[in-house]
Amino acid sequence: MPPSLENPPFARQLAPPSENPPRRFPSRFAAFLALTAVCWALGAALGAAQDRQDERDKRDKQDKQGDKPTGDWKPRIHFYAGPLWNNDPNGPILLNGVYHLFYQSNPYGDQWGHMSWGQATSRDLIHWRKLPVAIPESGGVAIFSGSVVEDRKNTSGFCGDSPKGCLVAVYTGDSQPNGQERQNQNLAYSRDGGLTWTKYDNNPVLDLSLQNFRDPKVFWHEPSQSWIMAAVLSDQHLVRIFRSPDLKHWKAASTFGPAGATGGVWECPDLMYLDVRDAHGNRLGSHWVLSVNLNPGGVAGGSGNQYFLGQFDGTRFVEDRPGSPTQWADWGKDFYASTSFANIPAQENRLWIAWMGNWQYAGAVPTLPGRGEMTLARRIDLRPVDARNPAGPLVLVQEPVLPQSANFHPSAAVTVDAANSKFGGQEPGDGVYALRATFEPGAAAETGVRLRRSSLKPGEPAAEETVVGIDRAKGQVFVDRARSGLVSFSPDFPTRTAAPLKHPDAKTVTLEIVVDRNSIEVFAEDGETVLTNLIYPSDTSRGIAFYATGTPTGSESARIRNLSLVPIP
């Protein structure tokens, strides 16, 4: 969420009219000037018309790659709200077997503004049904980010008889009283399972008279029998924690921060109690995680997400290892404003989802139509970094939610050439698929896979491709989208993002890569290292090629095993 409505991103500033009075000239000279002005105006009009045509041609060139319409970038397995704008996901929740997703939406266009809550539903987290605006901007109050809870005990008094489930949204209201921005926390409720919403008459319910106080994440804390809210004082790099018995009356409990990365404003906090599991999925216990997004200052530049491990007693969050290196949830450019789903059964892994975008260029990306989309929903838990020390440091693990038809199968190790003979050439299906493989780099300096290539021949150079690779010398996994297709709309887009391997000495590295029409999500090291990046390739760029470089003569060559490419229908 941008920090201010007063100066929204990508707004065009208009120059004030001139205050100089007109000058007077003798009549004959004035006639000459008038004739000159007419000629000049005619030329200017023709020039302006040509400028407009040039601008249209430029826009057409940006919105097309060759003869490809922008619709070819329209994601198929990621939610987007075309033809409008969307950014932060808000209040995702599971209710009666249906996943509800709310999100920051501009109902009037494809640029940021008029923030309201859009809504969509899904039964499988892949196919989404877009619904009418849930909570609209009104009365000069924009509806910024927040969360949704099911008030099963009717602590708020809103619910009464609600056979379909009673939901309460807690959101930031952003307004401009007396020309000064002000943010506070507000309520809306739904008695029909989230289809229609009513704003609470006595809003706001929590007001600190501040400009940057936003993004409440609320959940029920059973041990203390209270609602917990985590919200940010964004420009102070603080997470404030509040408690309430009824969602209406809040008391301050504690403050966390500053800590970790503070290169930009803090936004969209999330306090979660996650399972700790070993590499085989066996549950070892549970641990608290505080997720905090920030912009700018992300690890890849611009927007990013960090998390802290610690303890929470219903009042205060205490970090396990204060001052330890920043832990990043995602090392790509396009993972921001993450938030977890409410109401996920205790025996299942927690889910979360994020906006797949970056404020460095969000308003300049090509239209889909519309701008803005979400990542895949991801199952999340924690894992000991060292399997031999379960009580040692933990790392966040993410697994993409894919259709049940996406089955992967084990296979014997093959050389890169053999992998290209079997799988190289054209990508499966229509370019929407999941790839899973275990790479054995051997003595190769670098190995990986080149995707969305403009050449279908693995051994042939390609002018356009996105590279996912393992750099053994640097101990990194990376995504290089410098030549991924249309990249000229922002100097911050054509980049190589990289993440340090958690296990640099391991002889193998697993990669699971999910490719949609305009994105690549990489889950390396069994989900311990993740990179999310948008791409805008030509529709004809459907080639795929495995590669290995820098292998000394006579040394061990790179091999690939358990290689599967599964089309996603």
Question: Mind explaining what this structure looks like?
Answer:
This protein is mostly beta strands and 569 residues long. It folds into two domains: 72-384, Glycosyl hydrolase domain, family 43 (Tachylectin-2, Chain A); 407-567, Jelly Rolls (Sandwich). It has two helices and 34 strands. The strands form seven sheets. Strands 23-34-25-30-31-32 form a six-stranded antiparallel β-sheet. A six-stranded antiparallel β-sheet has the order 24-33-26-27-28-29. Strands 5, 6, 7, 8 and 9 form a five-stranded antiparallel β-sheet that branches. The longest helix is centred in the N-terminal third of the chain and has 37 residues, at 27-63. The radius of gyration is 26 Å and the shape is globular. It starts with 26 loop residues before the first helix and ends with a strand. The model is unreliable at 3-69 (pLDDT under 50).
Relevant terms:
mainly beta, disordered N terminus, Jelly Rolls, Tachylectin-2, Chain A, 34 strands, 569 residues
Overall, the morphology is globular
- What's the multimeric state? single chain
According to CATH, the fold-level topology of the largest domain is Tachylectin-2, Chain A
Low-confidence spans: 3-69
Radius of gyration: 26 Å
Q: Spatial order of the strands in the main sheet?
A: 23-34-25-30-31-32
Largest sheet: 6 strands, antiparallel
CATH homologous superfamily of the largest domain - what is it?
Answer: Glycosyl hydrolase domain, family 43
What is the CATH C-level name of the largest domain?
A: Mainly Beta
How does the helix and strand content classify structurally?
mainly beta
Name of the CATH architecture of the largest domain? 5 Propeller
